[in-house]
Amino acid sequence: MTPTSEITSSTAVLVPDSVQGVPAAAETVLRQMFDVHRATTARISPVVATLVDQLAAFTLNGGKRVRPTFAWSGYRCAGGGTDEAIARQALTVCTALELIQACALIHDDIIDRSDTRRGRPTVHRALEAEHVDRTWSGDSGHYGVSTAILLGDLALSWADDVVASRDLPAEIRDRVQPIWAAMRTEVLAGQLLDVVGEASGDESVDAAFRVMRYKTAGYTVARPLQLGVALAGADETLADALGAVGDGLGIAFQLRDDLLGVFGDPAQTGKPSGDDLVAGKRTALLALGLQAADSDDPAAAAELRAMIGRPLTDDELDRARAILRDVGAERAVEDHIDRLVAESFEALDAAAVDPSARVELVTVATAIAGRRR
């Protein structure tokens, strides 16, 4: 038995009977995962085990467990049961998405040079501070980045191990693997598009939506829904239908994130307001704002461009917000969110899904589309 196969081998793991119970269930499974990996890495070195503790703390600290929730929703929509051994295996695969998320967030914070996440120092900054506190040799910043990259890699590899080690029927495994593989490729490709877009200064709305589709929408909603369908053993027709539903909902999720990145309250979001502008992220909000300003107010467009990718004073940030509001970008993003959610719900109505599971999915989707953090 491999270390990862030990996870949820006990029938004591409670399988949620609705998507509302997924965050708590996923928390339990995540703790089991990290207990197993801490024991394994402690046999290599206490140093590695201590670093794994930091990865565990980051993963378990906050987070809405959106991806496992959508995966379990897909499982429920496809008629997946909750009272059999395979349901525990399915729950574990759904929860492994949180390890993908941990990897993505750790690496994204490095790329964006972010200082905080969920109201706390980002992983690379926390490790940098630890290096300073211990008066170790070498460059503290480089140590923090290097160690955080490796911890992100561990999270990604452990997620793969979870999926590979599940005791699933061959026909279900054959459905799961292509979806999992496509999701990994898409999220990394989306990140690459994001980095290249910032470096090249691509301001097009099309480019911003392409990044959203692959960097966020795919692994946040569309692929998790399809993963759940595959875990329930349903056919590709339903997987394709829920993939289309998830594509719209995932883009709406990221558009809300774009708004929160500029207009959000740091006390609720856990990160400084305006970080996206400071980092020079080519979000849809910014692309729509520049497109409208170029047409209606070129001076404001030039002013906004001058504020992208550098530290901003409070007055400058207020001015950037005012420009985005005045040219209609904020309203345009809200309209996109409303349209995408409505279209996704229409597509869901056309899909053959369990009625109670449909209600749960609509409830979760509505909550994330209108969230404030």
Automatic annotation (TrEMBL):
Pathway(s) where this gene product acts: Isoprenoid biosynthesis
Entry cofactors: Mg(2+)
InterPro entries (UniProt xref): Isoprenoid_synthase_dom_sf, Polyprenyl_synt, Polyprenyl_synt_CS
Amino-acid biosynthesis recorded as keyword: no
Organism from which the protein derives: Williamsia maris
Family from the record: Belongs to the FPP/GGPP synthase family.
Name of this protein: Geranylgeranyl diphosphate synthase, type I
PROSITE patterns assigned: POLYPRENYL_SYNTHASE_1, POLYPRENYL_SYNTHASE_2
Keyword terms, alphabetized: Magnesium, Metal-binding, Transferase
Listed transmembrane segments: none
UniProt KW Transferase keyword: yes
